Amino acid sequence: MTASPAPRRLVLASNNAGKLAELQAMFAPLGLALVTQGSLGIPEAPEPHRTFLENALAKARHASAASGLPALADDAGLCVVAFGGAPGVDTAYYCTRFGYPKSDANNVRALLEQMRDVEDRRAAMVSTLVAVRHPDDPEPLVATGRVEGLITREPVGDGGFGFDPVMFIPAFGCTFAQLPTDVKNAHSHRGRAARAMLALMQERGWPQG
Length: 209
Known about the structure:
Elements: E1 8-12, H1 17-24, E2 32-36, H2 52-67, E3 71-80, H3 104-114, E4 122-132, E5 141-151, E6 167-169, E7 174-175, H4 181-187, H5 189-204
Parallel strand pairs: 1-2, 1-3
Antiparallel strand pairs: 3-4, 4-5, 5-6, 6-7
Helix pairs in contact: 4-5
């Protein structure tokens, strides 16, 4: 009996366990096994750019060059209308602007403090995914997911990560942190971007070619 071939590996240019959990199952239909760059000893790439797209592309090319494998990168963040789209690409380090050590809890704390007297609570969670077949791929695949909501006055819910406890989604009547994991993943900004990326990969016969 012939053993089934091992799935091709796709490097995720992140060491974020939450991102890995959300993304790996979605790419199984392509016969791709998602592995983090950290598990291959690849350091994180610099992210000097001011857009999600530019940072995701830089991370994908970096991971592919270091691994010799196709790579997938995500750059995501919270864009608050009253702040002109900030924190945007600086989402992960938002709290450090206000003297707090970097952590999800401190990011939430800093955001609520800065929005204490802000009436316009509109915000969007945005995810941009970029995939490259090799470091010099001239035609990277790009997919974006976006979910609009309102920033709550205090954290609600115990699930998810990042700003999920303060991201109220009107369509569900609760925050991302209150949703069951499967429901959240299906409707999150990253889930929407991943479905769009999966469709692109299937359409292009990716990563071959």
